[in-house]
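Thread: "does anyone have the structure for this chain?"

Original post by V.I.:
We have the sequence but no experimental structure in hand. Need at least a predicted one for the grant figures.
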Amino acid sequence: MRGAAAAPVGRTVAVRVGALTVGGGAPVSVQSMTKTDTRDVGATVRQLRALERAGCQIGRVAVPDRGALEAFARIRGKVSLPLVADIHFDHRLAIACIAAGADKVRINPGNIGGTARMQEVALRAQERGCAIRVGVNAGSLEREIAAKHGGATPAALVESAQRAVRDLEAVGFTAIVVSLKASSVPHTIAAYRLAARALRYPLHLGVTEAGFGLAGIVKSSVGMGTLLADGIGDTLRVSLTDSPLVEVRVGREILASLGLRREGVEIVSCPTCGRCGVDLRRTARAVARALADVAEPLTVAVMGCPVNGPGEAKAADVGLAGGRGKAVIFARGQVLKTVPESRMIAALTGAVREEAARRRRARGRG
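Reply from O.Q.:
Generated one for you, tokens below.
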């Protein structure tokens, strides 16, 4: 693929979205989208605040009509989270959301109405310091591009993005983020790999319409995890038929599994078998709930097996190896103490909090 923004795979340019930097080597950020009726200001604000508490770094709301637009202006004044207005069909809604304080607008080149309207949005965004996401979607690709490629192929998605990028650059606009979403995991991966070589702008990852439950989580994790492991992607949204809070949790876990999440506790626990000597499922869940507020990046092992348990627990920042009515608590590879099984959750969470505080103090001295 060739185009005005062609570059080899590597670091993308940095784009500001409110107070957050996307691309340019910044940590991969997690986004989600409200599932309330945007016109219900109270419900939408409550969901955005809940998302922020859950670790969401960018919130997006649908703005399909004038009623939602009026609500967006009120919502903007009530939340601190960087806020994206999701626009289709009517470029005037995008312009109005920019005036209302949107940090980014998502526009779909397949239905926004052509070059002139896209450029009009870009000029207003330039004036206000608002970013634009070029949100290409396999289900709403420009007809002529789809016809040229025989459908919404990966190459077709990238061509749509490149054309939109050229239109924006033609008026001097470069605060651009790009997404190329399909519900097919292989198509999504192929499209983003092409885009990573064709574009220098940050890439927003996602498998659109991933579905619900385990299937949706797996599709999202495989699609985005594959790309992130290749060094592709600057921000992501897990699209599930579920609560947006679940989307954020899954997104954060995808990043944690690849070592890309730089805050919070990662729980390592064994799958259990006939050797397991404790109720590990209950224990791991209780530990995760108890440590949900810990921001320090720590690996915490919860193990219930005498084969690998002690070794895994010692290798973690803080760990527990339980069995036969008792548990050994480790920190930094050293045994701290042995406690009865009835006290092991409290002992482990206490050791984690002590280790988090020790690291904060060490940074302060540094």
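V.I.: this helps a lot. Confidence is low (pLDDT under 50) at residues 1-8.
O.Q.: and Residues 229 and 258 are 7 Å apart (CA to CA).
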